[in-house]
Specification:
The chain is mostly helical. It is built from three helices and no strands.
Length: 84
Amino acid sequence: MAGSSHGHTPAAWTGVTLSFIGFCVAGVFMVADNPVGFWAGSGLIALGAIAGGAMKMAGLGTPKEPEDVVQARARAAEQERATA
């Protein structure tokens, strides 16, 4: 797992950070019995998802692997299982 860059992109960091802040805001205002603040926090959660998705589409997320790489990885895994 150490070789994976899963989630280590500007898109992921931005989406998670905005969503986390929104979750904290919504939680505080839910306990404070303030519906407007709760819905504002919920809006921040949605904004985090939208911002992360938009940044990923703009090329700031993890790039997709080419099909030949996926097939080569599958063949290597099959060979490893056959020799084990």
